[in-house]
Amino acid sequence: MTSGRQVPATPRLAVLAGTPQLVCAARSLDISTVFVHDASEPAPPVAAEADTALAADLADTEALHAALAPLHAEHPFGRVLSLTERGLLPTAALAERLGLPGNSLHTVRLLQDKQRMRELLNARGIGPVHTAAPRDAADLAAFCRTTDGPVVLKPTAGTGSQAVFKVADAQAAEEAWRAFEAAGGTQPLAEEYLDGPEISVESFSHDGKHTVLAVTDKLVGPAFVETGHTQPSALPAPVLAEVTDLVHAFLDAVGLVEGPAHTEVKVTAKGPRVLESHNRIGGDKIRELLRRAYDLDVVTLTAACPFGLLSAPTAPPVPRRGAAIRFLTPPPGKVEHITLPDTTGTTAEIHLDVAVGDPVHRVRASRDRAGYVIADGPDAAEAARICEELASRVRIGTSG
């Protein structure tokens, strides 16, 4: 529990652009919730689950403060929280205006600015990576010539693997630059290509102390879009120890003090290197993988720990099973027919994001995937086998 603050008899939480799970977890803990959704959109169904719901411009800190300050004066909030990417900056800004504990606006901005984050890590010698901020294709080509191999071009503030391109050499810079702009990329950042397995690290912090909850092995397609995740990682223990040390040093460097973080890492021949990080739970159903493999409910931890209702983990949990997810990436075209395998006798679930008549696009970002299969098993290898066997029998026929 955070020291020096008197917690009201009935804890109160403001949730900005939050997931339904966060509001529901708070309710299960008898935490009063005020849910704030974007005024430019209809109220989502979760608004009805909160004790109070209101609309505000999430991009306007003054408007948020004007809406919530009177409620805070009547019955103080213990925290302002969000677990969605769009809610993280407004949450930090509002918490600072209300004088509430939590991750600083500086920290959240740093996590959402890949260039500043990389400059900080390089300055401190934490997994250094050669990087540049090219202004045009000529700059990109010049950067390519300074590296010993390929480079990656990506947006400084991008998410969902959108507008991320591997540039083979200086001769490929012009074509890559055009593709980056065509994909909506802005604020370009170029970094040396890091070769090796890609993983993600889920962690939880409390009072500035960090605990790694799980390391997830990732499958990544040619456009840097994830096609699968498996927990726990199959990497050797010494490598996982290096990864843990790197993530702890990274979270200290950026100043994260509480809540979940999702940090993406490449394991290279020179050691692990941070790719990017977010002060939220990982997407792609990693929250569900944690539940299946570790019996962990990180959403409930996020709501409960600031109020002292649950203790933050102080050591990595031991997995009780393995869990895996595989994403469905049928050929582009119009969906003509769908056939699903029988999942009877398994713990698997199949979710589709397309129906007959829908278009399927070439996979250039996470949103282009057509669905997923998720399952658990006695260990990670068996969970992955079950998942992949079922995914291979999902038939999404496309034409044109």
From TrEMBL:
Full protein name: ATP-grasp domain-containing protein
Species assigned in the record: Streptomyces fuscus
Signal sequence bounds: none
Kindly give the Pfam families that the UniProt entry links to this protein.
ATP-grasp_4, ATPgrasp_N, LAL_C2
Tell me the keywords, alphabetical order: ATP-binding, Ligase, Nucleotide-binding
Among SUPFAM superfamilies, the record links this protein to: Glutathione synthetase ATP-binding domain-like
PROSITE patterns xref list: ATP_GRASP
**What is the phylogenetic placement of the source species in the record?**
Bacteria, Bacillati, Actinomycetota, Actinomycetes, Kitasatosporales
The cross-references to Gene3D superfamilies, in alphabetical order and at most eight, read: 3.40.50.20, ATP-grasp fold, B domain
Ranges of residues in domain ATP-grasp: 118-307
